[in-house]
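Incident log, support desk, overnight shift.

02:14 A customer reports that sequence design results differ from what the structure should imply. Their input is reproduced verbatim below. On-call engineer (initials T.W.) acknowledged and began investigating.
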């Protein structure tokens, strides 16, 4: 079992944007971002595997660990966003569940799912090209609805949810916790 400190994501001391940008000269950041944009072009225009979104993950030394492009359409997978594809590839390549020390470069500001994936993966930061407002205005990729839904209590969200059978699910959580006291 991989050890993962409880609530690591919440307690983490995150780097500032200035610290992330100070890791390397601006031309290097721009070059990594251009690779993410090239992955977006590949996905949306050249190979038509999905929408025009791409990503690159770079380690602390400036090495590209993994790349990703949107494969939602090609894989019939609504979670196959460029950032998620890059995170999956980087974790698999490095055989880790934490990408601490790495920076995620994304062709566009990450959607809520990709932002959550970046948090869970523990990247040090995200550098993006187009803003969420650009994607909304130009292509209609509007995440505002999702942010409102996430902020609402479960009982007030548009997607109906119900918790049954809670006692059986809680029993499995307790059993896992008893057997793995160092797990999340």
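02:41 Re-run completed on a clean worker. Output:
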């Amino acid at each position: 079992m991989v050890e993962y400190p409880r609530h690591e994501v919440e307690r983490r001391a995150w780097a500032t944007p200035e610290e992330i940008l100070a890791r390397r000269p601006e031309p290097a950041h721009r070059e990594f971002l251009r690779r993410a944009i090239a992955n977006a072009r590949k996905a949306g225009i050249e190979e038509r595997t999905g929408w025009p979104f791409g990503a690159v993950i770079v380690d602390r030394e400036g090495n590209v660990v993994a790349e990703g492009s949107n494969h939602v359409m090609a894989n019939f997978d609504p979670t196959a966003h460029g950032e998620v594809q890059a995170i999956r590839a980087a974790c698999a390549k490095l055989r880790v569940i934490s990408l601490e020390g790495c920076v995620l470069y994304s062709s566009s500001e990450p959607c809520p799912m990709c932002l959550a994936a970046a948090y869970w993966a523990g990247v040090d930061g995200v550098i993006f090209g187009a803003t969420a407002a650009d994607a909304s205005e130009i292509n209609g990729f509007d995440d505002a609805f999702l942010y409102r839904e996430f902020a609402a209590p479960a009982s007030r969200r548009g997607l109906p949810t119900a918790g049954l059978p809670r006692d059986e699910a809680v029993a499995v959580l307790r059993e896992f916790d008893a057997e793995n006291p160092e797990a999340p």
